[in-house]
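tool_call: predict_structure(chain=1)
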Amino acid sequence: MKLHKVLIQSLSFSRDEQYLASLGGQDDNQLVIWDVKTGKAICGHAVGMNVANKIAFYNNTNNNLVTIHNYGIRIWDCDLVAKKVLYQDLTMG
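tool_result:
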């Protein structure tokens, strides 16, 4: 967890507990996905200017996460083989 500067805001294990997603606090605001077996970071991404408060893996897949922000919700698609994460903001009506 040394990739986060100070605070770890939220943690979430994947459905099979193979991966751990960590969300840094306001000081770094980074999303990092870890391999639980090796303890090494697989990939990460800056969450952006909108501070995130909570992270959670979907119940049925290791490749999708959701982050809850002060001003919205963001869906993350994780390609753990290519070590990339992409996101899409949900439109809140």
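agent: Strands lie at 8-13, 19-24, 30-35, 41-46, 52-57, 64-69, 72-79, 84-89. Proceeding to next step.
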